[in-house]
Amino acid sequence: MAKIKKSPWLLHYDGSSCNGCDIEVLACLTPIYDAERFGVMNTGDPMQADIFLITGGINTQNAEVVKQLYNQMPRPKVVVAVGVCACTGGVFKDCYNILGGADTVIPVDIYVPGCAARPQSIIDGIVQAVELFQKRSDEHDKEMKNKGREAS
Amino acid sequence: MDYKTSIFVVCYILFAPLIGGLLQGIDRKISARMQRRVGPPLLQPFYDVIKLFKKQVIAVTPSQGFLLLTYFVLMVLTGAMFFAGSDILLCFFVLSTAATFLYFAAVVSSSPYATVGSMRELIQMLAYEPAVLLTCVGFYLAEGTFNVDEIVRSDTSAIRYLPGFFVAFVFILTIKMRKSPFDTSTSHHMHQEIVKGITTEMGAQNLALFQITEWYETVFLMGVVGLFVINSNPISIVVAIAVVLAVYFLEILIDNSSARVKWNLMVKSSWLVTIFAAGVNLLVLMLVYKR
Amino acid sequence: MGIFVGKNNMEVKTMIIPFLILFPFIVAVLMFAIRVNKIRNGVAYLSAAIIIGVDIYLAVSWIMGGCEILSLYVDTALANHVILAAEIVLAIAVTILCFIHRKYWISILAIAPTALMAYLELYGPVEEGVAHITVDRLSILMCLIVGIIGGLIIVYAVGYMHGYHHHHTDIPDRRYYFFSILFLFLGAMFGFVLSDNLLWIDFFWELTSVCSFLLIGYTKEQVAVTNSFRALWMNLLGGCALAIGIFYCAYNAHTTSLHSLVEAGVIGEKAAIIPVALIAFAALTKAAQLPFSTWLIGAMVAPTPSSALLHSATMVKAGIYILFRLSPAMSGTLTGDMIALIGGFTFFATSVIAIAQSDGKKVLAFSTISNLGLMVACAGVGRPETIWAGVFLMIFHAISKSLLFQDVGATENSLHSRDIEDMHGLLYLLPKLAIFMFIGIAGMFLAPFGMLIAKWSALKAAVDSSNIILVLFICFGSATTAFYWTKWMGKIISHSHMTGEPFKDITKKNEMISLVVHAVLMILLCLLFPVLTKVYVGPLLTEMFGYSTDVLPTNILIMLVIIILLVFAVPFLAYIYNKNVKTNVKLSYMNGINVGDNKAFIDSFGDEKKLWLSNYYFHILIGQRKLMAPVRLIATALLIVMMIMIIGGAM
After folding, report:
1. Where are the domains of chain B?
2. Most A CBs within 10 Å: which of C594, C597, C607, C608, as the mutation test of the A interface?
3. Which of B80, B192, C292, C438 is the most buried (most CB within 10 A)?
């Protein structure tokens, strides 16, 4: 099994957030926290991403967007909800247009709490997501192998 | 092809991706250090590519795969021809055909970002092509041959006659390697206006293939840089490697210390440099040395 | 360079050559006379087949006979008078047309050279024992190009003109006239490339100019008439220069034979300088070089078969042909420098302007001028390597341009547009035509095809001859050339924003035949390229220069074969391989607001918005309107200064 967890590429999507978490997410990549140590790259492209990082809640407008971005990511993939809004809807929960947390439209694997989430906890969330990513990749490999066996 | 050239070609095909990947790893590490970060491990590019191969194969248009594969093979062919000591002008012609296939692979998806990126890639080709051809002409004038194996065996380093060409070539190298300030087509730093440019719709193994092709290309281009220095004296090989590394470092430095320019400034500046550095050098060579 | 007379196949030639020249004239009359479409089409097919057949027979029998240079028709008093009469008729016809359309001054350009020629014919110095027709490798090559491509284009034209008049009901159906001129032109072209006598050359030259003029004005629309007269005066100006050159040559160099003139030029006889310069000047007008390029752009209003035949594949090559003939005499002289400079400048400048064009036919027109420029530059340098390059450029250009023009024409009939932007996804709309277009464009600039190798050789020769400016022009021009072709190819293969309504491919079978033959020829030539250079073009250079250099070293040749095989095989194998890879198709990335079919996205009002992808053209920056005038000005200045220098220096 190859160590694919050494190369987690992120897709960061900002739902309906106050931008607090987004700034913290970007802070993770700055010299102080330097998430690239773990091979993390922040790609803007779902096609190349492994970990889907969502900040902010889901509203009626972006629900479809989040679903489409999720579908555009190749398997195996992991979803991380960063900040309390992405987890549950947060302070915006009762707004007329808010549907709730990210898990109302796509399956979320890791929840990172905080308002705003601190870089330390975001990196912690990513590291956990990376482990899950490795696990899923192994499963994906096995599945592909079985499929290959069935075909032959 | 004799015994020796076959070894060179086989070595290129086997080791170029390793060297190219390693160079990219060094690039990322040095870039990180320049930004006072720790940076990823040295072997990070290999981890990335292995991961990309492991992912589900995904594409907007399935035909992208074969176009990229063609791009890959033609690029390997370019390098193989170069290291086999063949005609350098021919190498660059094949290289431009390879680049055309990359363009096709990007536009075939008709994705807005990929299309913008590929149009910009075309402009980049427009910017660097004259300098590349002139470099070949320079080698021909300095050494009397287009053949790489004969250029390598000459008594003096070509750079003695070709300082202007060298400047022009290093200048367009930034464009060719899609590094800032001339990374208009890929925007390789994150979060930019055209997402990932020409590679936007490449994912999983397609992107991996693109990456490996870039490694081959880097080694080939660095080979051309080395060709400026290498002569029949074995010591020159060491010097050449030092020059190659210095040039590569220079590219990283430029990459990290400049912001992206607009396409028209790119074309203008590269053509101006081509005319003034390479053109003047050409003039001197033709009028002073050869006549 | 001696002139040999082959006895064995002499008789055959004396029959075939007049047949080849006269037969199209007879058919032209027939075409004009037959007003029933079906019968005329039948005759056209038959005649085209006969022309191709005889043409190939001539070439094959001549090559089998050992490729001797034949000089024929020494005593031709009758033919001379017929030609003189025809020339006068031609001048009168042009004059009448000029008066009808109130372009009085153009008639002077028609009358003056005719008067000169008539004077020369009747009262000029008589030269005994000179052949009027010469058959050598270059003229046979031209015959093959003219005959085969011309014949195919006529086959194509039968189908095309049917569709053309189907769509353009406002244009009077004068197909009898159209085909008549096409055949007339073929005859003129055969006469032109086979003649050695300068008086004959002048007549056929004027005849092709007039054919071109008549075909451009075919639709009788205002713009067509204006453009046709522009083409006329520019070509006639060249004709004037030619006539003066011939006149000067007859009195000062004491010859009216092209071969003798070139020989005199090679040994550096002073009297040959001015005629060579004037004839070269005439060739520039015919080859639509700057500053005369505008006539060729304007000529694109004519129906596509005439654009393909006259304005890209053959007639403009007449200028190139005559320059190739003169090139040994021009090599290293001021005339040669001028021609190389103008050619190189045209190559670069028009390829820049071509980037800004989105009309398919205009791109083809500009690229034709641009490529002709490269050939002209090759001729101007006048070394065996450059002529080698030039000959291959000519062959490949003739075939791929003819293919492209016909294809764009057929596409226009089916798609109702010839704008490149409308060809987005052509591969899925009109697959057959798109593939032919792809082959044609690939032939124009991609690696294994001959054009690129020719460019390689041209570059090398330019360096060898220390022509710095030409080297720069070729380097920069190659980059701009690749730019506009690549973006066109990209348009063809792009997916999406296809409107959904399927277009019907209404390309006629006869059009298809011509396209297929062209495409096959193109690929065959690409494969046979190394053989062709050894067997035919190498000796051609020996014939012209008395010696020949090995232009393609063996290692390059081997490399070339490998590249050709790989470039053909790799995409194919990759395609086969990739078919087995299971790919999951997903939507293209539009920030998550892709509507679901890659053709539209959701805008900020929540509505669907069509995605429209367009190429870059930079038409404000480098458009025709902005660049054409200054570029022509520069070229005019260059031309005038250099002509004065040449003529003044020779006086």
Report:
1. 3-289
2. C594
3. C292
